[in-house]
Amino acid sequence: MCLAIPARIVELDADKAMVDAMGNRFKAKTTLLPEAKLGDVVLVHAGFAISLVDEEEAKKTWELFAEIENFEKTQNKLSG
Amino acid sequence: MANTEPERILLAHGGGGQLTNQLIREKILPHFKNASLSELGDSARLDLESASICFTTDSYVVKPLFFNGGDIGKLAVCGTVNDLAVAGSRPVALTLALIVEEGLELRVLERILHSIGRTAQQNGVSIVTGDTKTVERGSADGIFINTAGIGIRLEGAQPSLDKIAVGDRILVNGTLGDHGMTIISQREGIRFESQLESDCAGLADLTCSLFENVPGVRFMRDATRGGLAAVLNEMVEGANYGIEVSEADIPIKPAVQAAADMLGFDVLAIANEGKFVAVVSSDAADECLRRCRAHPLGRDAALIGEVVPSQDLPLVELRTKVGGKRIVQMPYGRELPRIC
Amino acid sequence: MLDRIAKAQHLIDEACQTLDREITIMEVCGTHTVSIFRNGIRSTLPERVKLLSGPGCPVCVTDQGYIDAVLELTKRDDCIIATYGDMIRVPGKAGSLETRSSNADVRVVLSSEDALQLARDNRGKTVVFVAVGFETTAPATAVAVKEAADEGIENFCILSGHKLVLPAMRALLSGMNDRVDGFLCPGHVSVIIGAGAFREIVDDFGRPCVVAGFEPLQIIEGLAEICRQLSAGQPELKSIYGAVVTDKGNVAAQDIIAECFEAADGYWRGLGKMAQSTLKLKEAYKRFDGFERFGLDDVPGEDDSGCRCGEVLCGLIEPKQCGLFATQCTPQTPVGPCMVSSEGTCAAWYKYGRRD
């Protein structure tokens, strides 16, 4: 019941945010994380950001996140 | 006359009278020009080069009708083409039965028909006969489509479950989960923007290339509903062997994995519409892989596992990225998203 | 990654040698249960290390009385029942939300915010939000209740089934299952309550507590740390999920829980009545309490189905020791919530393990 993945805030208006996880964009609220800013990576659970994510730690913790730099460069292209 | 042309489908369009004829001649036929269809007979008369044929049918009820990478029309052609292709045949002709909901916009229907025509042409198949019915508002989600298809069996291609043996390798022609996650991403209540795209495509050109040139293709199935997990489990049912696949070797796009992780789906059980799972002899494996990767629909092809002796029960097992092992079961019907 | 795994496995092997006995580690989070199964982690551990699943699946520990109360509401045609997907198939005395023919509109939602929006969009009906989950999910419910209060949305209420993890852990160690040597602590509950919340388990019971995330490497390294502590004979509190967990947790979330909710005694499936283990709405927000509004109670009834979910939830038996497992009780025909919930121990065994 604790599904949550790290996602980057790409839009923010008061406590209403749009977050991006590997190109998938979801709505999320930052009501529980008032310090969140545009560009931050946050942990999203049940439609709410519940924690800031330390990006360096994230690369060591989530396998998929470690690929994020590659992803952002090649934009989801696996083959040439 | 332009000013009497209705903009939406009426029940009368399926009545078999004037409106039906008008619809067929003006809106449907133009997309599928071929000799058999133009006769508009009750049946198509086909002269086939061989009496050894494959014959299949499928119905398409996908919602939404249009999605990233395809639509119900493209699906209706590719799905049936692929059923013929994996059976070791070259698809030649399709029937097209439409069940249209009263009130569907004509331009939506035309978009779908255009897509069917284009996809059929790209895949070398003709729509040779068809049927059009209409149902009352609420009885269909816009449109339901059924296609039946005929393919000419390739000489020497006799894929069969009986041929599978210990030591054979498992091959897929590319990334898994693309179609299913794309559809889910556009479903009411879960909708999210994404770069996800359905992999909907006709595979006959690729499969024929394998069947005709590489001896040792034992068996093939397209991995639609139920995904890879369903296909592998079907293969081991009642068999005296098991299958072991390696998680690290299974190609999955990061965006697809991320979407699945967010919603709690298992990518192995998600539908594909442009992927086959093939069992090939260990000698043929490298050649099959090479051929796939040289083809636009097989660039991300991978050898993901092998057929192994069965301990007691025939099982499908996954070696996980951390070196663990777990069983891959037959998915049980609808995968509901886990929420939180 | 492989070298980190090798290192972890070495620590685990060392503990087995040093202690020369069975080591029992429990996780108390359904998401850990699923991840352990999905990644085949048990198969990477030595025989002597036993992983137990505890009462960490919020749907599984929701007792039948609560479900029956929700099902009571399906008789009414003035309600919209908004629920997370997991609850749809949980069986009550007479069917589930999925199978029971309902006068009420039943909708699956992904967020408490969706439920509140349903209330805004359907003024003629009362939206009842089936609020299940541990501390990770309770803040989301609290935000929705507060917003309803601020905006004056009176056609909204919740049935709080929220539960607290620590009382369950204490109850286990105090009697129900004291064989547990150490705990893998829930990563996302810790994001909210802080890793420091588990310090009392270490201090009062002398058990290692390690907070870990849900990736397989996190779990393996978490288990290794527990083993290292057991070898050294020094139980500690440690977190390896520093990417998102702090010692204090998310204070804003804790504050909003405290504003709307207070701890109360409540019923947990399998564990019975536990003091101060559930959340109920405070007086200031009582008008949003669905139990009061509709005169419902969630007192559990008798269960004579042969279901042994309770023992499974305490880690006392494995699913295959329940006579109903994979015979009468399957995902298609579930008898108890451990099989129906996607995070239930029985569902995980059925889906990823052997059924014979």
Could you walk me through the main structural features you see in this protein, from its secondary elements to its overall organization?
The complex is a heterotrimer of chains A (about 80), B (about 350) and C (about 350). With about 80 residues, chain A is α+β, with helices and mostly antiparallel strands. Chain A has a single domain (about 5-75), classed as SH3 type barrels (Roll), CATH 2.30.30.140. Helix content of chain A is about 20%, strand content about 40%. A five-stranded antiparallel sheet of chain A has the order 3-2-1-4-5, with no helix packed on it. Chain A is globular and about 30 Å long. The model of chain A is unreliable at about 75-80 (pLDDT under 50). In chain B, helix 3 (about 70-85) runs parallel beside helix 4 (about 105-120) and helix 3 (about 70-85) packs parallel to helix 6 (about 205-215). In chain B, about 30% of the residues lie in helices and about 25% in strands. Chain B has about 350 residues and is an alpha+beta fold. Chain B has two domains: about 1-40 and about 50-155, 60s Ribosomal Protein L30, Chain: A; about 160-325, Phosphoribosyl-aminoimidazole Synthetase, Chain A, domain 2, CATH 3.90.650. Chain B has helices at about 20-30, 35-40, 70-85, 105-120, 180-185, 205-215, 225-235, 255-265, 285-295, and strands at about 55-60, 65, 70, 90-100, 125-135, 145-155, 170, 215-220, 240-245, 275-280, 300-310, 315-320, 325. Chain C has two domains: about 1-305, 3-Layer(aba) Sandwich (Rossmann fold); about 310-350, no CATH class. Helix content of chain C is about 40%, strand content about 20%. In chain C, the strands form three sheets. Chain C has a five-stranded parallel sheet. In chain C, helix 2 (about 30-40) links the parallel strand 1 (about 25) and strand 2 (about 50-55). The mean pLDDT of chain C is about 90. Chains in contact: A-B, A-C, B-C.
